[in-house]
Design brief:
Blueprint: E1 5-11, E2 16-19, E3 25-38, E4 44-56, H1 57-66, E5 72-85, E6 91-105, E7 110-111, E8 114-115, E9 123-124, E10 128-129
Parallel strand pairs: 4-6
Antiparallel strand pairs: 1-3, 1-5, 2-3, 3-4, 5-6, 7-10, 8-9
Amino acid sequence: MINKVILVGRLGADPEVKYTPDGLMITNFRLATDEQRKDKSGERVRQTEWHRIVTFGKLAEICQNYLVKGKLVYIEGRIRTNSWEDKDGNKRYSTDIIASDMRMLDTKGSTRETVMEPGTENNYGSPGSVPEDDVPF
């Protein structure tokens, strides 16, 4: 079975940093993706989805050091749904994207890629270009 997610979006806030009891760094941040379409009257309609992104270890350190609110990033990972009971006994759910790869993208038609894969040190990709029409914002 496959559980894989690919997102390109903008950070809604700077990453928040936490640590496990063993000292492993974790970052959490919100990522906004937009979908644009035309409604029945021909007007452009934009719908924004917010995603909760979680990173661990080396990737978390890189996210803490380089990501800021508004940054355009490519995220690859898997979906994880958590459930719990709130103080009133109601069942609650949250869905997170556990990131395994992250690439920082520039917004002016060029890309600055920093490819982060599990078990690798910083591996800097070569510059490329992304046509403005391919950027979802």
